[in-house]
Amino acid sequence: MEIAGRPGSHALSAFFDDEADAEKASEELIEAGIPKDAITMTPGNRPDVPPIDHIGFIDALTGFFFTEEQRKNYAEALRRGGVLLTVQEVNKEQHDAALNILAERGSIDMDERVEEWRRENWK
Fold this sequence. Notes:
alpha+beta, globular, 123 residues, 4 strands, four-stranded antiparallel beta sheet
């Protein structure tokens, strides 16, 4: 999970291997009082759907709250079929609740995942 934000507001992102888990997390975020329009789900490539240019999506976020390395890693996770869930412009209480929900719903540890990819010789 990545955390960023402007003073007084917070943003975070989390990756899920399973779209159903990401959808459940999104529903729970809304139930916790986070506005629906603050939540964005970006599905990755799936075998039954033509590929999406996620690198273009991630590049559009340059200067937002992703570093160049994070953008590269997120694009790779989307290419491999993961789901990116972002929550933007929430207050401290909503942020803390969102962190708990995302962790409980099975968001992946991107550092661990990238290390696995590196062992596969991914660059």
